[in-house]
Amino acid sequence: MANMLLTMGKALLKHKLHLGTLTGMERFMVSAVTLADRAATFLAATNIEPDLIDPKFDYVLLSKSVDANLELFGLVRQRIHADVVAVPYWLGLMCVGPAEFGTVFKVEKRRVPYPIDYPIKKQEDIDEIKIPQQATGYLKMVFDINKEVQRRYPDALVMVMMDGPWDLAMLLRGDRELPNDLRIYKDYSEAKDQATRDKIRRFGNPDIYPAIMELTTQLSTRFFQLAQENGLSLMGSALVDQYAAKPIMSRADYFKYVHPYRLRVWEALGRQVSPGYQVPSPRETEQNMQDPVLRKGFGGFSNYIFPQTPEGVTLPEYDQPMLDLARKYKQSYMYMVHGKYLRDATESQLDATVQRICRMAVDSRVNLMVSIASVPPGASVEKANYVFRLVEKYGRY
Amino acid sequence: MDTTIAQAVEEGNLYDIEDMVSAALAAGASPKELLDALMAGLKACGDRFETGEFFLPELMGAGNAFKTGMAVLVPKLSATDRLSQGKVVLGTVHGDVHDIGKNLVGFMLSSAGFTVVDIGTDVSTEGFVQAVREHQPQVLGMSALLTTTMLGMGDVIKELQKHDLRDKVKVIIGGGPVSKKYAEDIGADAYGNDAAQAVSLVRSLL
Questions:
Q1: How many Å apart are CA A104 and CA A101, to the nearest integer?
Q2: pLDDT value of residue B69
Q3: Strand (E) positions, chain A?
């Protein structure tokens, strides 16, 4: 942590006194505080399809070998020309611990591991899941990879990203059952009389939802603690509940039935983790800024789940309001180029899109960070680098 | 039309719908009239989802209420009462177990009066071909959430061609990584950007 603060201080000094060109990490840090020299670029390495780097890497190998993940991350760092390349493991949703509690993942060579069976079938199953004393399995693997990355690449950004109570519950109960559990619990707790509550019990068990969320609140807290016990810093860490948003649930339901559990994790961890909450519009982004907890969230100023055109570009009318908000709240606007657009668009289409968003940010004097949501089959590393070069060309303040 | 029953479905009142439908039948309401009420409730819920007022738990509640009401009603309905707008087979492609998007599409289509045959997730190429052969739908809908699994959609279309079934069914595709260009590349008839478009998309093909 001390190193990070030192790097930040040096970067700010270098920028203010014009002591040379900022490195990628320096630019990333400067943009968190003040307007940098140009828009920054960022890529989560895990979002690149492994065989686009080298066909010898597949998900079976990557799910077994720490070394394979480290080697692949090293190659991604060499070949991708983004300011910051982070998230050095390719484990899909296994990386946040559910496999250790009985969620069954199917691991195939050319597909991101995905859950096919869930351990909580009935309420009694919840008691079978014990809070872990030590990190094991895939969770341990992620910690080991992060630690080794920190050792090999001291300038790398190592972020601990763990699922929050809702997303963990989705992985332990299943994405079909949990929304239904919530529905039954909501109806039960909002019922006006005992007769109605008795009737609801004939159709479902209202006790499952709070019991699962209680468990996953403790699990989520413990996972972050285990990260610390395994030598990782929680600075810049994120508590992720990406499925607790539209269209899965309303903002009102989020605040009533999910947010209180997330608050408990946040408090238990000494308010160190960033409890970001992705929203689908500038209006809700501004609402987040009124919330004392959500306004500290990582990635809150992002177009990640905003509505898109059929080609996969965020509706262009959302960009200027987001830039205005970013300026108002002294934040960066993280603009995601979606994987399908990267794959399908021609170079001239990419050029027009990146140029448009960069020019708007430059004119508005707002820090912009451009990232690519995924580099899928059919796209290429060269195409991703093309996007990053366009940012360097058009994103100078 | 029985607006109380329609409202119960719209609000996902799964708990009272059985009694309400039974009572309405006992009071002499026609099964067709009650079917219209159940459908109207489902449609109202779908409309509220489309405008961003309702979300997944509300849709699930309405869907469950509709099914519960229908269980009482089905034995009383005549064949003509049950006339469908058309039949749609829906499934998520092989290697992909995400079904939220598919379920939303199924809900929207059911609420608009289509018969939906949901063949589930992780459906093999042969599974889709078999379902088209068996159910003879007007439309086949395929969903994928992963950039790797969506490639299976093209295989299904090729297999339909191979078995002389392609010209007997319209193919629509959807899901996060799918695009209009991809639909054109693999020879699908249409692509849906989100679940809310499903009804107009299917109607435009029939």
A1: 9
A2: 92
A3: 40-44, 84-86, 104-108, 111-117, 161-163, 238-240, 333-337, 368-372
Q: Is the pLDDT of residue A236 over 90?
A: no
Q: Summarize the confidence of residues A33-50 as an average pLDDT.
A: 94
> How do residues A355-394 score in pLDDT, each as one tens digit?
999 999 999 999 999 999 999 988 999 999 999 999 999 9
pLDDT in tens, B129-166: 999 999 999 999 999 888 878 888 999 999 999 999 99
Task: Inform me whether the pLDDT recorded for A248 exceeds 90.
Answer: no
Residue B137 to residue B198: CA distance in whole angstroms: 16
A249, with CB counted inside 10 A (0-12, 13-18, 19+), is: buried
- Residue A278 pLDDT level (bands cut at 50, 70, 90): confident
B33 vs A276, higher pLDDT: B33
Tell me what the mean pLDDT of segment B169-184 comes to. Answer: 90
Q: Which of A60, A340, A341, A349 to mutate to test the interface with B (most CBs of B within 10 A)?
A: A340
Q: Tell me the shortest Cα–Cα distance from B80 to chain A, in angstroms.
A: 31
B15 to chain A, minimum CA–CA distance in Å? 6
From chain B residues 95-134, the ones with a CB under 8 A of any chain A CB are: 95-100, 103-104, 122
Q: What is the pLDDT of residues A6-21, one digit of tens each?
A: 878 888 999 888 888 8
Q: Which CATH superfamily is domain B3-76 in?
A: Methionine synthase domain (1.10.1240.10)
Residue A125's φ and ψ, nearest 5 degrees, are -65, -25
Q: Which fold has domain B87-205?
A: Rossmann fold (3.40.50)
Q: Do B55 and A247 touch (CB under 8 A)?
A: yes
User: Burial, A55: exposed, middle or buried (Cβ in 10 Å; 0-12, 13-18, 19+)?
Assistant: exposed
pTM of the predicted protein model = 0.88
Task: Show me where the domains of chain B are located.
Answer: 3-76, 87-205
> Which phi and psi angles does B129 have, rounded to 5°?
-60, -45
CA distance A221 to chain B (A): 26
CB A246 to CB B146 under 8 A? no
pLDDT of residue B52: 83
**SS3 state at B119:** coil
What is the average pLDDT value for chain B, to the nearest integer? 89
Residue B13's closest chain A neighbor by CA?
A187
Instruction: Tell which of B14, B17, B56 to mutate to test the A interface (max A CBs under 10 Å).
Output: B56
Q: For A183, which of B52, B57, B176 is closest by C-beta distance? A: B57
Q: Give chain B's length.
A: 206
Strands (E), chain B: 87-92, 115-118, 139-143, 170-174, 190-192
Task: Cis check for the bond before A132: say yes or no (omega within 30 of 0).
Answer: no
Residue of A nearest to B122 (CA): A116
Q: Do A114 and B193 touch (CB under 8 A)?
A: no
CA distance B178 to chain A (A): 7
Q: Which residues in chain B touch residue A311, judged by CB atoms under 8 angstroms apart?
A: 179-181
End-to-end CA distance of chain A: 30
Average pLDDT score over residue span A60-70: 98
Q: What pLDDT was estimated at residue A145?
A: 97
Q: How far is the C-alpha of A201 from the C-alpha of A178, rounded, in Å?
A: 16
